[in-house]
Design a protein that fits this description.
The complex is a heterodimer of chains A (about 290) and B (about 325).
Chain A (H helix, E strand, L loop, with lengths): L7 E2 L23 E5 L5 H12 L2 H8 L9 E6 L14 E4 H9 L6 E4 L2 E4 H24 L8 H15 L4 H19 E2 L6 E2 L2 H17 L1 H9 L5 H4 L2 H15 L6 H8 L3 H4 L5 H4 L1
Parallel strand pairs in A: 2-3, 3-4
Antiparallel strand pairs in A: 1-5, 5-6, 7-8
Chain B lengths: L1 H13 L8 H4 L7 E5 L5 H4 L9 H22 L2 H8 L9 E6 L6 E4 L4 E5 H10 L10 H24 L8 H13 L4 H18 L9 H9 L5 H15 L1 H9 L5 H5 L1 H15 L6 H9 L17
Parallel strand pairs in B: 1-2, 2-4
Antiparallel strand pairs in B: 3-4
Helix pairs in contact in B: 1-4, 1-5, 1-7, 4-6, 6-7, 7-8, 7-9, 8-11, 9-11, 11-12, 11-14
Classes of the chains: A mainly alpha (about 290), B alpha/beta (about 325).
Chain lengths: ~290, ~325
């Protein structure tokens, strides 16, 4: 089994997940975000397609992006790609591949729950977090392009930073933050490192670097909650000491470049929604 | 700007041909908001109370190190390296004081300090560049290319950090990549010959410093390299070459032909360069005196004699 650094398989959690969209009020979708679920041909992907459609993943994205003022339509589709992912081209649709989502599922923990730091997260939350990451990072890349945001550094890294910031800042609900970050970290760690011990051979360096980007942003934003990343050695001291600075720099850059395109009042309304329920992250116990 | 730095450094560090600043350069003022200072290296006789006639190996090594750093210090001071770099940065409309230092650091590095608002070029770094430079040209990279280009790249990289900090430049990507891009972009604004020399110096630096990360590399090394806020040296090599090829494909085509960069990546280099150009125009150019910049760009500075050679071997 490939390691997930310190994200250890842990106790079972008796969590029951709900499809909870009916429980929350329906915010207006961003009319510029045009969504499509393209039916796959490969039998193995049919179930993935149906599951994502039933979970209204793209509808949630439309609502999540409703405060954003986009100058033109942004098509976003879930589709069979014949590959793990396809690159975004300006003017084209953002395509999230069923193959990628399946990869997230394949790499999910073998146990029904895992312990990350002091938090126990169900397997499904890890999968949800991984999917949230790919959707946010892909869409962020296109939005940076559409809004003609000045990009210093690689655009892929900028998209990751925006995705990480959205995960950390968007919802005040801890379960949303944990699921998104843990799912992202789990997936990137599984893809990056190979071996039976912590930090064996790095087989995908770029994804290893992405892992550290997300870990550093989390530690920089909520140091007490993510201290375990440093104490366990997952985030080396040499990087960790600058994470708060990195986080603040991204937050400021976001405020300078993206926030002018955001309806702040609308953002506050969207942030106030019960995203944990909408993302099906609440357990039976939570809902009682 | 880069031409100036290249000129100053090439003379100050290499002791090559004499520096011939043109009359145009003399008309470019120093940036009034930049303070410069050359700290003397630590004299072991004064600071450590050591006796220079002591024959013990340990003491002699201390004095040997001191003499080497003192030679570097004297050269850069005599040649007014920092004053000239201040002249080179004249177009920057700085709101406060930026300090430029050369000094003994105790380690090989150069760095920007946000708290002091200072750029420090360590004497050890200059010395290390001299020692690592090839005696004879290697893959078309001459000794002066390696020293001048490497140090100019470093000074511009640290200046990139300073610009980001001082002007609150929004950086959504990695800050270290941003500083590299600023350096590379500036290096390409002063004509083909200067671009060739400085980019070759940068390529020499990153290819020499690259850590092989294949099978057998220890996990602790991998973790250190991939968790670093800097990109890997290999990635930095490609950043500089890709920016250069993106802006001047005819000048740098031979590097692509020689296999120094993947052709798929090369096909996107123009896009990468334009992305940086747009970011520069939106976020940095508003803080630049364009009249002075044009003056600095049009000035004629010293060019190293050995340039224009390109690698011919395929990796």
């Amino acid at each position: 089994m490939r390691p997930l650094l310190s994200l250890r398989a842990g106790a079972m959690l008796c969590a029951v997940f709900f499809f909870a969209s009916s429980a929350a009020s329906q915010p207006a979708a961003n009319p510029q975000v045009v969504i499509e679920y393209v039916a796959p041909r490969a039998p193995a992907l049919v179930e993935v397609h149906q599951r994502l459609k039933a979970a209204r993943v793209l509808e949630l994205l439309q609502e999540f992006l409703s405060p954003l003022r986009l100058p033109r339509p942004l098509p976003v589709k879930l589709a069979e790609c014949g590959a793990f992912e396809v690159a975004y081209s300006p003017g084209q649709a953002v395509t999230i591949c069923y193959e990628f989502v399946r990869e997230v599922e394949v790499n999910a923990p073998a146990t029904s729950a895992i312990q990350i730091g002091r938090v126990i997260l169900p397997r499904q939350a890890i999968i949800t977090g991984g999917v949230v990451n790919v959707v946010l990072a892909k869409v962020a890349y296109a939005i940076l392009d559409m809004l003609e945001v000045p990009i210093w550094g690689r655009k892929e890294d900028a998209a990751d930073a925006v995705a990480a910031l959205a995960m950390l800042e968007f919802s005040p609900q801890p379960e949303v933050i944990w699921a998104a970050l843990a799912g992202t970290s789990w997936f990137l760690a599984q893809r990056s490192f190979y071996g039976t011990g912590s930090f064996s051979d790095t087989i995908r360096p770029a994804e290893a670097q992405r892992f550290y980007t997300y870990a550093c942003m989390a530690y920089g934003a909520y140091r007490p909650n993510f201290e375990f990343l440093v104490s366990n050695g997952d985030l080396p001291d040499g990087r960790a000491r600058y994470c708060a600075q990195e986080y603040r720099a991204v937050k400021r850059a976001f405020a300078q470049t993206i926030m002018p395109h955001v309806d702040v009042a609308r953002l506050q309304q969207v942030r106030a929604l019960d995203w944990a329920a909408r993302m099906q992250l609440k357990s039976d116990q939570d809902r009682r | 700007m880069r031409i100036f730095a290249a000129a100053a450094l090439s003379v100050a560090l290499c002791g090559l041909a004499p520096f011939h600043a043109s009359a145009q350069n003399a008309s470019i003022p120093r940036n009034e908001n930049i303070l410069v200072d050359y700290y003397e290296p630590h004299n072991p006789e004064l600071l450590g109370d050591l006796d220079p006639t002591d024959p013990s190996k340990a003491v002699q090594e201390v004095f040997e190190k001191y003499r080497n750093l003192k030679r570097v210090h004297d050269r850069v001071k005599e040649r007014k390296l920092l004053e000239r770099f201040s002249q080179f940065l004249a177009p920057l409309k700085l709101p406060g004081t930026l300090r430029l230092f050369t000094k003994e650091c105790g380690f090989v590095n150069a760095f920007y300090s946000p708290s002091e608002n200072s750029i420090t070029l360590c004497l050890e770094y200059v010395l290390a560049r001299e020692q690592a430079a090839p005696k004879e040209p290697v893959a078309g990279i001459s000794r002066e290319d390696a020293i001048v280009g490497g140090i100019v790249t470093t000074l511009l990289h640290e200046t990139g950090h300073a610009i980001s900090h001082i002007f609150r430049v929004p950086v959504l990507g990695r800050e270290e990549d941003s500083a590299d891009q600023m350096a590379a972009f500036v290096m390409l604004q002063f004509g083909d010959r200067v671009a060739m020399t400085t980019v070759k110096g940068a390529l020499w630096s990153w290819s020499r410093a690259n850590i092989p990360l294949g099978m057998g590399t220890t996990s602790s090394v991998q973790r250190r390299v991939y968790s670093d806020s800097h990109s890997t040296n290999g990635q930095r090599f490609f950043t500089f070459l890709c920016m250069a090829y993106g802006d001047k494909p005819n000048v740098f085509q031979s590097y692509i032909d020689a296999g120094f960069i993947d052709k798929v990546r090369a096909a996107n280099c123009r896009r990468d360069y334009e992305q940086t150009q747009r970011a520069f125009e939106k976020t940095v150019l508003p803080h630049v005196d364009r009249g002075l910049m044009a003056k600095v760009q049009s000035a004629t500075w010293f060019y190293p004699e050995d340039m224009g050679q390109v690698p011919v071997q395929t990796r």
